[in-house]
Amino acid sequence: MKPKKIFILLPDGIGLKNFAFTSFAGLGKKMGWEVVFWNATPFDLEKMGYREIKLQGSPRPKTDLLKRAKIKAELDLFTEKFNDPVYQTYKFHSPSRRIKEKIKDMLVSHYKFYNGSENGLRRLRKGMQASEKKGNYYRDCLEVLKKEKPDFIFCTNQRPITAIAPLTAAKDLRIKTGTFIFSWDNLPKATMVIEPDHYFVWSEHMQRELLKYYPFVKKDQIHITGSPQFEPHFDPTLRRTRAEFFKENGLDEDKEYICFSGDDVTTSPHDPQYLEDVAGAVQVLNQKNYNLGIIFRRNPVDHSDRYDWVLKEFEDIIVPLDPKWKEYSSGWNNILPTQKDVELQINTILHTKAVTNLGSSMVFDYVVFKKPCLFINYNLELGDNSDWSVEKVYNFVHFRSMPSKKAVFWLNSKEEISEKLKYALSATTVDLEETKKWFQKINVHPPHEASERIWKEIENIVVK
After folding, report:
1. How much is the pTM?
2. Are 320 and 311 in contact (CB under 8 A)?
3. What stretch(es) of the chain map to CATH 3.40.50.2000?
4. C-alpha distances in Å from residue 363, one per residue of 4, 340, 355, 404, 448
5. Which domain of life is it from (predicted)?
6. I need a labelling partner for 382 at 20 to 30 A (CA). Which of 70, 177, 203, 295 fits?
7. Can you list the positions of beta strands (E) in 240-386?
8. CA distance 123 to 363
9. What is the pLDDT of residue 92?
10. How remote is the C-alpha of 94 from its chain's centroid?
């Protein structure tokens, strides 16, 4: 009997970590599926033994303008509908003063002005699909699908406009489609640009969000599966001994380490100063007969030099272990994860005592390993005119899912970091029950069975 065929659509590099670097594809093959990656990234999946077809072409410029208008109109509608100004904080303004960019901004404003209602948003969504159908990219996708005849298209990310043409072509050929909502914070940000037949979400909480923000989606289109991104944490073959890990990365075996995980410059523009404060607190503890160090893991797409001064100032305390992502060309979306980085991240968690950051989802990675997270929660007096603040960050909708403030340790001032660190590092005092509740709310458990749940749902869809 001919095996069922699935196209795993990689419209950008986001899906590599979840679906190429986990057991997902291998599990599908064991279940009798022919697995083909439809790959828009420069990453060579054939070297990993997968069959891949490269996506040829790119979206039309008009589609991007319609997408930008849709996001802004959607955020305005959310603001009005839910009587909540937080949605305005998800808007990003173009800093460019070039004439070309000004013209684009004017066109976006035009599309948004005339499409600010629910009906208008429907027009914008249909407009993006209609725009793509006029391009060569769509026609190339159509030809590939006619030739290959897959039974299902599984899109690994709901955000990129590079996914619109492939899914529109599939819809026109009556091929069933689905998308994975790739991150726990995405839905309130109006990031949905595609309209597949099915949606795969992390949890009941995310299902409720999807129904809230996108009322045209029906409950029977949603499949609660969890995210495969946590599965490697449970793979013993990826773990290194403490001695191996320390030797490979030049760490001091006499020290215990905490991790400082960096944010991008938009989320935390003052991250270097926060790292300085944490390093200073470690210095204070070391003067009290502790022997601590910091492993600094920067945001994978932040290749700036903004941390250089603090790394130099505290080179006896901070050891930078840069994520092993590969830059294929300029632009954050062309910096892609690698399998080696999955291993590096897992062993960084395994061999550090805790993580500190400003609101990072690393809290969930650490609780898998039964380790605490400390959230930075104070502003710095730097004299800049930025409207950024920690209050703005922690008011984002995804933090409202926290069952209680006890889910993390809050660093409310520079002065209390050393005492909070000391408390968090004490095995007898740390209670992670609230953190576990938060993780269970965000991601259906058990977390290491997400791939199995996704395949089970896909099988049911195709059989129907």
Report:
1. 0.95
2. yes
3. 4-59+135-227+447-463, 232-442
4. 38, 21, 7, 14, 17
5. Bacteria
6. 295
7. 256-261, 292-297, 318-320, 326-327, 335-336, 355-357, 373-376
8. 39
9. 80
10. 22
